[in-house]
Design brief:
Length: 254
């Protein structure tokens, strides 16, 4: 019962965080590890639990699906599938011992990306504005960028949204709604293919995943309802603090 309570609480809060500002992976992964799930399986199972939120977010932004310069929508989706699949396969090939050593560094990197998110987006928007009127980014640069970020997302989901927003800004996309629409769509696509590969590789604990999926969906709805009542800086500070604490816990457990 204690394990169930921990997983339900973590998934509920993670769903709410993702609906408001992101950072849900900072809670689902440590919660699963705390209940005795091996790190690689915990990473895969937590990603499955958050998939409905990505799908709902993508559908909610369906009217704003507009690819960045240098990419068509079809090509962007194909690259998302390839990168997400590659990252998921890499996770399959990673041992628990290796992932246990890697995960605190991934958590720190994801926390840093989240903390620097506003500056990173401003920098990318400035770069995109400075490039206005010049030639669009090369197809090769856009292709490599999407493959790299999608591969990261298929391997470890934390901080994915910040990376995607920064990438789209660097590629010259300036409309915020279009950037958010593409962020949600790419996240949903690469996570969906990664989940299929996780499942085929036997990495998903379905009882925990389904339990957390329900809680995360409820948390996403609740988070969307209360989002306007909580100051954004407080939310961001709380998520950054959570990420740092979880990274410290994983370092200590080594």
């Amino acid at each position: 019962m204690f394990d169930i309570a921990v997983l339900l609480a973590a998934a509920f809060v993670a769903g709410a965080l993702n609906a408001v500002a992101g950072g849900g992976s900072f809670l689902t992964l440590p919660a699963l590890v705390l209940t005795g799930v091996p790190p690689v399986v915990a990473n895969a199972t937590g990603t499955v639990a958050l998939l409905p939120g990505y799908l709902a977010g993508a559908w909610g932004f369906r009217e704003d699906w507009q690819p960045p310069p240098g990419l068509t929508l079809r090509r962007l989706l194909l690259l998302s599938l390839v990168g997400g699949a590659a990252g998921a396969v890499l996770l399959l090939l990673t041992s628990d011992a290796a992932f246990r050593r890697i995960v605190p560094w991934l958590l720190l990197a994801a926390t840093a990306m989240f903390a620097l998110g506003p500056r990173l987006r401003a920098w990318s928007a400035s770069a995109a504005g400075g490039a206005a009127g010049h030639a669009a980014p090369s197809g090769l640069k856009a292709t490599l960028g999407v493959l790299a970020v999608a591969g990261y997302g298929g391997y470890f989901n934390g901080g994915l949204g910040i990376l995607l927003l920064a990438l789209f800004g660097l590629l010259g996309q300036t409309q915020l709604h279009a950037m958010n629409g593409m962020k949600n769509l790419v996240s949903a696509v690469l996570t969906a293919i990664a989940v299929l590969i996780y499942a085929a590789g036997g990495l998903v604990l379905w009882p925990q995943a389904l339990l957390m999926m329900v809680a995360a969906t409820a948390g996403g709805y609740a988070g969307a309802r209360v989002a306007r009542r909580i100051p954004a800086p407080w939310l961001r500070a709380g998520i950054v603090a959570t990420g740092l604490v979880m990274a410290a816990v994983f370092f200590w457990r080594q």
